[in-house]
Each structure stands twice: as C-alpha cells, then as structure tokens.
From TrEMBL:
One GO location term (cellular component): SNARE complex
Similarity comment: Belongs to the SNAP family.
Localization, UniProt: Membrane
Protein name, per record: Soluble NSF attachment protein
Listed GO biological process terms: intracellular protein transport; SNARE complex disassembly
Keyword Protein transport: yes
UniProt membrane topology term: Peripheral membrane protein
GO molecular function: soluble NSF attachment protein activity; syntaxin binding
TM spans (from-to): none
Claim: Protein transport is one of the keywords in the record: yes
InterPro entries per UniProt: NSF_attach (IPR000744), TPR-like_helical_dom_sf (IPR011990)
Length: 255
C-alpha cells in the first residue's frame, strides 16, 4: 500500500508565507476601496480569503498577534459587503482565539463584536455562547469577578429568551457564586432560591434542590438571622422533604 507523505510547514516558512499573503490581500483590499471597488465584489472575497489564509499560517508559526490581526482585517472587510455577517462573526471569534493567548482584553473585544453581529442576526443562542466566553475570560484570565458576573448574567438572559433553561441556570449559578464572593448576599440568595425552586418542580432534578436551598439560606444568614428563618420556612413549603436532609439539620442548628 502506498502512503502519501505530507510535508509539515516549518514555523519560519509559515510566517514568511503569511506575510506575503497579507501583502497580496492588502493590495486587493485597496483596489476594492477605490472607484473601481464599485465593481470589485469578487476582489473583496479574494482579499478576505487571503487574510484568513494568512491568519492560519500565522497560527502555525505561533504569531498570535499577527494571526488575530489578519482575522480582524478579514472581518472588517467582510462586514463592508453587508451580507456576509455570519462569516464576519466567525472571523472575530477566530481572532479572539488567537488574542486570548497573549492579550485577553483584545480577545474580549473581538468576542463582543461577534456577539453584536449574532444579536443583530437574531442568533441569540450563539450570542449567549460568546457572552459566556467573555465571562470566562474575565473570570480566569483577567481576575475580574464583577465583569465576569455581569457577562454571565447577560448570557443567562439570552439563554432564557431562547428557552435554554439548563444553560441559563448554569450561568446564573456562576452569577450567584460571584455575588456571594462579592458579599452581594441578597442577590446570591435570590438566585439560589429561584434555581432550587425550579429544580424542586422537576422530577429528575428535585433531589438537587436541597443544595441550592441550603446555599440560599446560608446567604440570608450572612445578612440577617430573621431573613434566614423566613427563607428556610419558604424552602420547606416548596420542598417539604428538605426537612429530612442533613443540610436542614445544619441550618436549624445555626439559626
């Protein structure tokens, strides 16, 4: 049996090829911006394809800034056509994946541009997905819990609008986590109680409800003992078997 051998491109060669392709793309994009650009739709497409090709070669060379810049150039040029928004959003996401390795803030900027495009297109599930990515970058790379909380909440709003309850709850639990860490106990308690209530009403999830009711009452306890007692009574009304749990016993001993 004969096997075809593929030659891997060395990093230095990839970078050199990418730079040449970028120059070619810039020439084509300049043509489209002049008078003859009125008839240069195909040149725009060619320039965009060249920017993407250059971006991928820069990725092979691990030149992350240059790769991100190439994808951004493609996105901007694609948007100038007006009818290729999905491709532009994809370019911004590709750019973000490059920038996040060296500059999380630039990665976030690109993701927010992608979110804006997907929102205009009515692709709210995609917009929610990338709001989550923004939140994760603020959480992990930027160590900014307030902004992470903000974007998890925006993602949850979009997921709720699309009836993606599981994804919305996942985001809201992150919001509750950060709210508690930031001592916004009322906000955290309300979220935990709301999710506990929704779980209690679901046959498959009801046994997890006690965990969220426990966290809700704990958050109230950080603010006011009387509020905690009222919250505990509400949880029992909603989910009577909560009284049989170890979590309930611990809370009763603490209030």
């Amino acid at each position: 049996m004969n096997f075809v051998k593929f030659r891997s491109i060395p990093m230095e060669e990839s970078e050199s090829k990418a730079q040449k392709i970028m120059q070619e793309a810039e020439k084509k994009s300049r043509i489209t911006s002049g008078f003859f650009g009125l008839f240069g739709g195909s040149k725009v497409d060619e320039a965009c394809e060249l920017y993407v090709k250059a971006g991928n070669l820069f990725k092979i060379a691990k030149k992350w800034t240059e790769a991100g810049d190439a994808f951004v150039r493609s996105a901007k040029l694609t948007l100038s056509r007006g009818d290729y928004k999905h491709e532009a959003a994809t370019n911004y996401v590709d750019a973000s994946n490059c920038y996040r390795k060296i500059n999380p803030k630039q990665a976030i900027d690109c993701l927010l541009k992608a979110v804006e495009i997907y929102s205009e297109m009515g692709r709210f599930t995609m917009a929610a997905k990338y709001y989550m990515s923004v939140a994760e970058l603020y959480e992990v790379e930027c160590n900014d819990p307030e902004k992470a909380m903000h974007y998890y909440e925006k993602a949850a709003d979009y997921y709720k609008g699309e009836e993606s309850k599981s994804s919305a709850n996942k985001c809201m639990l992150k919001v509750a986590q950060f709210a508690a860490e930031l001592e916004q106990y009322k906000k955290a308690a309300d979220i935990f109680e709301e999710i506990g209530t929704s779980y209690a009403e679901n046959t498959l999830l009801k046994y997890s409800a006690k965990d969220y009711f426990f966290k809700a009452v704990l958050c109230h306890l950080c603010r006011d003992v009387l509020d905690a007692q009222h919250a505990l009574n509400r949880c029992i009304d909603i989910f009577p078997s909560f009284q049989d749990s170890r979590e309930f016993t611990l809370l009763k001993a603490s209030i």
